């Protein structure tokens, strides 16, 4: 067997080889010294490598702490398992179930097509029409589902543009029968001297049409690149707006909650107050992305010659036909929309902070954002998908057609003895639907991330790493935030955003305490920059989806995305140092993080606070 064949054989087995050899090669790190720090480092390196290289499914890697931490003596099994059922995970689980209902009844497709029919036919407005529904829907659904839903619509749009463009070229170049050449005889004194073939005007037109066709092909390729990338970039930007919009945001909340509770402090990060920072940041990134993608396409296309809008008019007509084919909104779509809006209202009004929310009706700490998320999710398993016979006013033609289709599944359900779909009753959601469509892997990933962070803290690894990074204390806090955001933005392009946030956040929290900077001040830029995967397909699933479409190459993503990556980090740090500081009071540092115990005076809790620039100490007094 040749060396090349041997290497190919080994390469096919690379994943199991790495899974077996890496823990064995790193085993001395856990055994030598017998310290918890070295054991924690062993666990982090093994899991981090498995996550980055994806030698096992990411969700499976996330289960490693359950057996590894007890075996290494870092944490007991009971404490490790608690991390997989955190309040934050239940919040994310509830939002995922609601998103499954939106997908099941195609409400997201109706929203997307409606947005596309409202914009103008010009490329810049069509680009906006593609980006806006992706941006909005990814606030509430997974970025992956949003992009996957949008790609068939995008394919139809590009197909219409190409069809009409090629038709225009064909119709504009029909030179007739005599379009090859003309024989010209030259005579001198009546004697024929020479015959020369001359190209006629029709032949020149044929050459021109060839050039036009090549130009149109290049322009279509550029347009397809921009449209495809816009779906992924808009989905990534939209997820930043809400706390449940993207995994790094929810991972941030989980880490902030655990870290602050360790010192008996209130993290104060809720769905409602995240909108104060996340939504404006998301809007700015959306606008910047739209302008940059416009510029990238327009500088190559519109500077040279005016655009023929006939192809885009055809696209507009096609989109209107597609939207009309959906018919009127069904009963199920309406119920899902109401539940969706009700959940958003409950999240926002639970603790808006500038006024008392409905959360004050219950004992302090009893009701969290996960409460309405799970409540609405459970209700969706009870509400009917079709109106009962006595509610004929709510029935539409689409409901009747859907009901006839549903009868087939009802027959199957009776055979399967499913009690929830027998007797003509069909709920909005069934457990089978949720079980099949739910992204269970990300739930396990979050649990594994929280367990890993807990292990880093219990083993002392986070504290040890933060001492090595104390050199950053010579820099201004905003510079530290910028450096960390750039590092994470680079890392997230070669590893998943969830894994990147999971690995960096616990270390950054302890580093902030060492530097006497409010931990949230550094954790927000780190978590959000994990969503800035603009360069490579492996960065996020939306990138992989648009890359798989065949419209773009890696070099295209790098050339277009590098500018967005830098701009996004700069905008993030600027808004973190201004808007986030003002919204969350991040210009002060509670001394409780340094191990100082809060003292009480006349029934009040006195928490010492040190300013961000360490120039003075103040005291916050809260009545019990």
Task: Characterize this entry briefly.
By secondary structure, this protein is mainly α. Among the domains are: 1-82, no CATH class; 86-105 and 330-438, no CATH class; 587-624, no CATH class.
Can you characterise this structure?
The chain is mainly alpha-helical. Among the domains are: 82 residues, no CATH class; 129 residues, no CATH class; 38 residues, no CATH class. The chain is built from 26 helices and six strands. Strands 3, 4, 5 and 6 form a four-stranded antiparallel β-sheet that branches. A hairpin with a 2-residue loop joins strand 1 and strand 2. It is globular. The relative contact order is 0.12. The C terminus is likely disordered.
Main sheet summary: 4 strands, antiparallel
- The overall average pLDDT, rounded, is 79
Strand proportion:
5-15%
Please tell me how large the radius of gyration is.
30 Å
Structural class, by secondary structure, is: mainly alpha
Helical content stands at: 55-70%
End-to-end gap: 77 Å
How many beta strands in the DSSP annotation?
6
| Low confidence ranges | 173-182, 302-307, 413-423, 596-624
Count of alpha/pi helices: 26
General form:
globular
Oligomer: single chain
Features of this protein?
6% strand, globular, 624 residues, four-stranded antiparallel beta sheet, 26 helices, single chain, mainly alpha, succinate transmembrane transporter activity
